[in-house]
Amino acid sequence: MDISTIINQTPETVSKEIARRVKSLRLERNLTQQAFAKRAGIGYDGYRRFENRGEITLKNLLLCAVVLDCLDDFNGLFKRKSYESIDQLLQVNQTKQRKRGTINE
Prior knowledge:
- By secondary structure, this protein is mainly alpha-helical.
- It has 6 helices and no strands.
- The chain has helices at about 5, 10-30, 35-40, 45-55, 60-65, 85-95.
- Helix 3 packs across helix 4 and helix 3 (about 35-40) packs across helix 5 (about 60-65).
- The radius of gyration is 19 Å and the shape is elongated.
- The relative contact order is 0.09.
C-alpha cells in the first residue's frame, strides 16, 4: 500500500500547499519575489520555481522560514509521541533502541 493513499496527499500537493502559504506570507509583507529571495539569501530563479512548482531544497525552505519568522514550526517535525500513561513510557524504554534496520525491500 502506498503511503499517499493512506494520508490522501502526495508530496507534490503538500509542497505546493507550503509554497502557497509562503507566497501568501510574502505578499502580506508586501515583498516582491526578488526582494524576498534576496532577504532569504537564495537565488531568485530558485525561489520563483518554489512558488510555481513547489520545488525547493530543505536549506532554502529553512531560509524562507527565517525571513518569515516561522523557523519554530520546523521544531515540531518528527517528534516522538507524548505518552498517555507511565506504562507506555516504560514499554518504550524497555524496547531496545535499534541502530540500523533489518528490512531491505
